[in-house]
Amino acid sequence: MKIEEFVAALHAEFYTGVPDSQLKPLCDYLYETYGIDPKRHVIAANEGNSVALAAGYHLATGKVPVVYMQNSGEGNIVNPVASLLNDKVYAIPCIFVIGWRGEPGVHDEPQHIYQGAVTLKLLEDMDICAFVVDKETTEQQIEEQLSAWKSLLESGKQVAFVVKKGALEYDKKVKYANGNAMSREEIIRHIVAVSGSDPVVSTTGKASRELFEIREANKQGHGYDFLTVGSMGHCSSIALGVAVNEPDKKVWCIDGDGAALMHMGAMAVIGANRPKNLVHIVLNNGAHETVGGMPTVAGGLNLCEVAKACGYPNAVRVSDFKRLDKALKKAKSANELTFIEVLASIGARADLGRPTTTAVQNKIDFMNQLK
What we know:
It contains 15 helices and 14 strands. It is of the alpha/beta class.
């Protein structure tokens, strides 16, 4: 279905959510049509944030909002759906549009397999009626389904369109870019050169894929790295847990701006605990690049100043390799919690692969390396 037809059938005036590769046609269309407009389209920090924004929109307008996300975000909406939107609480209607990663019978990455299997069940448990959208779905069917759901929405319930891979199409090609000079893969290569045999915890998406391929090229093995392939936003907390229990090892965290924003409270916890052996690096390209490149609000933030406010005693922001190398070497020798914000460009190699080891094997290798 053409995305223009899908959007027209929804008859919605406000969209908010977290980008998803499966929903790229929708994300690109919304960005091309509305950009970032607090009254029409907001890219949120996390999916729960989107639900709250949608609730505020309904309270102010009486209209039904649309919240979009990958199905991995269902976990982030459980609390606000159950304790805010639910018809036994405030009865706030909402239309969810959910990209179905890990659909049973369709090959996908390991972090999506279980999530994909329970996608519809989770919606059912939250009392959200769902309709699956595939390549054969028509605009008329979307219209008819919304008509069938009219009484549910009017009573303050929520509904969901669960979108299969390839179900939506958008003819325009939207290119996202920034003015930063350093590529993420080259930045990670510099981090690897300085971190040596220290343990590294890396974030969801292309950063972990690039780290894996750098280790392959260096013939180093993969025991040094814990690749956080799922649970976006939590790699810094994983790194904190490793650092406080391995005080004699320097622990490096390679984070992304979208991930750091998703659960920013983790920075406050890290800053309060101040592990002297942790180096927290955020690669800030101001984009959700792994799922298409839509912007994050981090492009307009100074995360270095945020880290300082959260209690990191040593924080620096760099935009070129000379300053990056200096900051990395200083962090390597420092006996102090360090934060490095690295301004990165948007883009990755077209032939970038994926980890060839299983997630469980990665865990075992990492734990053995720590010993």
